[in-house]
Amino acid sequence: MASQAEDELAPSQTEGFKVGARKTIDEYTKLDAEDESLAKWKASLGISTGPTASDPSDPRRCIIQSLTLEVKGRPNIAIDLTTPGSLEKLKSQPFTIKEGAEFNMKAVFKVQHDVLSGLKYVQAVKRKGLQVTKEEEMLGSFPPNTLDKPTYEKRFYENQAPTGMIARGHYTAKTKFTDDDNVTHLMFEWSFDITKDW
């Protein structure tokens, strides 16, 4: 039986959609090798564009390296997730967001070893124990990073903080990065406060 945290972070499913069979980079590279237009398409995806940046001693396929809170008119707040203790810091030290402020999150990540199919960002936000919102965003599919493109960067949809006395207060969030194979690449809790002023 799935836990409550897993249920609230379960990505939506499209009825009738079936994930295709997994292929390795070698299989994609050899696929219709004589087809010039397909070769151009594969190059546009970054398949076979240079030496891989994969670390053979690290089995992870996707590594979320940093998250940044971007607020219009304010300095960015970046969290380096490669630093030990960074996830615990996210939970214990809330971000402050002024009511009505427009903001978005940005993730920097690395893909290694194999094609990552259907990377998704899923987030559930609660206030006083009640879920107030659930967001899900498809990031896409990515080939392994190469030495000439060592990371990917994704800026999420812009949000606006709620306004009014009732909206002000402390919020908790659970966030998960998952893929079409239902592999969880990162899951963490964090918090933020909606305030009247900065």
Question: Topology, please?
Answer:
Layout (H helix, E strand, L loop, with lengths): L3 H5 L16 H6 L5 H9 L17 E10 L5 E4 L5 H7 L2 E4 L3 E10 L4 E12 L2 E13 L9 E4 L3 E2 L8 E10 L5 E12 L3
Parallel strand pairs: 3-10
Antiparallel strand pairs: 1-2, 1-4, 4-7, 4-8, 5-6, 5-9, 9-10
Descriptive notes:
This protein has helices at 4-8, 25-30, 36-44, 86-92; strands at residues 62-71, 77-80, 95-98, 102-111, 116-127, 130-142, 152-155, 159-160, 169-178, 184-195. The protein contains 4 helices and 10 strands; from the N terminus they run αααββαββββββββ. The chain is mainly beta.
- Helix-strand pattern, N to C? HHHEEHEEEEEEEE
SS element count, helices: 4
Beta content comes to: 35-45%
The tally of beta strands, per DSSP, is 10
Assembly classification: single chain
Termini gap = 43 Å
Structural class: mainly beta
Mean pLDDT: 85
Return residue spans where pLDDT drops below 50 for at least 5 consecutive residues: none
Quick one: overall form? elongated
Biggest pleated sheet: 5 strands, antiparallel
